[in-house]
Amino acid sequence: MSDEIRNSERVESGGTAPVQRRWLSLDSWAVLLALAAAALVKLHILNTVKW
Question: Whole-model pTM?
Answer without folding.
Answer: 0.51
